[in-house]
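P.,

For your records, the input lines for the assembly:
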Amino acid sequence: MKLTGAEILCETLTRLGVRHIFGYPGGAILPVYDALGKSKLHHILVRHEQGATHMADGYARATGGVGVALATSGPGATNMVTGIATAMLDSSPVVCITGQVSSKLLGSDAFQEVDITGITMPITKYNVVVSRAEDIARTVREAFLIANSGRPGPVLVDITKDAQQATADFDWDACAPKLPPKRVRKNHDQVEFDRAVELLNSAKRPVILSGRGIILSGAMPVFEKFVHTSNIPVAMTLLGIGCFPAQDPMNLGMMGMHGEAWVNTAIQEADLLIAVGMRFDDRVTGDLRTYARNARKIHIEVDRSEINKNVKVDAAIVGDAGETLASLLPHIHTRDHNAWLSHIKELKGDSAVRDIQSLPDSGHLFAAHVINDLWKATKGNAIVVTDVGQHQMWEAQYYHHNEPRTLITSGGLGTMGFALPAAIGAKFAKPDAEVWVVVGDGGFQMTSCELATIVQEKININIAIINNGYLGMVRQWQEFFYDKRYVATPLVAPDFAALANAHGIRGEQVTTRKEVVPAIESARQSDQAVLLDFRVEQEDSVYPMVPAGASLHEMIRRPNNPLVETATEP
Amino acid sequence: MQTIVAYVENKPGVLNRVASLARRLAINIDSLTVGPTENEEIARMTICAHTDERGALRLEASLEKLVDVLLAENISDRSVLERDLALIKVAADQQNRPHLMELIKVFRGRVVDVAPESLIVEVSGTVDKIDGLLEVLRPYGVLEMTRTGRIAMTRGNDILRPPAEATGAAVKSPAA
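Structure tokens returned:
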């Protein structure tokens, strides 16, 4: 069958199971758009290519499948860079397809020419230029395979305009992926495995550190079994949230910079850490020299280059989280850790200020209230997509996720502007799910142009802006570490409700505690997108906090009397 | 100094990926040689880098993550044969030429070109040996020099071969 390169691309994507593409047209990708019009693929027109990559990323994170973004050459491609880096840092399977100037113009500084494979080399798992129509199908199939195998990540395929226009034979069977013959390393090192088993069966104060690798591996059932068989409590990274039910008593919660005090203290007092599908990020460990000094460490990780990168471990098992946990399970003895577990429970003590929502209404609106009320109203069943900053940490603390892929957030790169587009992607991936954007007034303004995309695509997602008039997390650092010199953090914003209205989206401002639940409920009842602008306390801070570079146990704790400090006038 | 041997796909851009990776890890490459193998689709690299064992481990593991790198192995602590090749143009006149040629012979170098006022020496061997020859030639006036950088091979039964078969199909896909 003879097809043009552009038609081959659409046909290949269709056969790979793609239904949605997030993109923005332009000269060098026009042949593909022409072919898209004749295909069954649903193209979502974004307002900025960064949005397209975040949407594809949100799509991928919501399902585990590959998300696809499309852009033209030059500025279209460079606008994708932040989204690609975001996907790279969080191991998200995204395939970006960009148009490129015709192959005979390559290197001539032609109009809208940019070396996008050169630019994205360090932030993609793989990237490639295709300049012949007959190479498109195989290359795109390889891109999908690479993006979603091993440790997933973004792949960029740059297709020259002449390759899109030329015709070639299309034979699905003849264009099967043909990846280079890599060495297959023997993952199962018996010595390391035996040492891990021995450590697991002799520890007195063990803690499991769980990360996104468990979700990517689909290992939730075997992980749950592992936790209950070994009787070891679980701490999680931000991206690990959802890999183990929040309601399970063995779940300690999030660790690290804004982890609860008892979680970080337990880690510092532990005699064994079992890290599964996480990479000891600096936001998780604090100062490495004082990190869990008394603990032996086991690292279960699919990416060999993560072993001993930040933290030297005593036993490393390179492999898929689910497969590794399953192979360990038969060797694990169920041990009585009651003394340790009750010690951790004691640590919780007063610092468990989880009941913040039951504090009396002081006339002030706190972000934690809003998020906790959102959790209760949605019964914890919504997909929550957050941006980056204070609201992101409060979400992690006050919205309790029992299911994987229900918290979508930019962890590694910390990309402001992620939430709104990523939520649009998640909604396309899970059209029946209730999707909430939780975003700050700063991050929202970075990508608020995508409100128009919501309207054009008639999708129903709800937006909760945690509006404190500051770049809140930076303001908090200035408060703690720069003597309250609030340089460049006070933030003027438009009337967000009016902005929503201007787009044809219902917008509502919420200023008091008693309005929160009715506003959330009315947004939930609506069959259209609703934007809620929560005017929260301006100079509230996220506690506890481990200052950057400090030891994990050196936390700035919640003020002693939260009633005074957090809920009433100081 | 750490030595890593890598088999890579012999195609454009791969050298860039390898060099770019070292840069990203803030590892300074001392020398990098690349050439085809008996299989024209596969090239072999010898990478010598200023880093410690931990850095080499990271470089090795990160290299092997690159799609186009088939195998990467740190051979620094193995029994290794290594060679560097140099061409050195030295100032030489009728008077000191015989003496120079004696010196070159001691280092098992070869004079491959003689001109009225200079000669070119070809010498191969370990880095130390070539550095040693350079040291004694310097007083005569080294006019020009070029070195290939090290190539290395493990000795005896310690054989590093590129993987033979494609493994693409065996890669586990986590997609549900």
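Two observations worth noting. Residues 91 and 140 of chain B are 6 Å apart (CA to CA). The radius of gyration of chain B is 20 Å.

Regards
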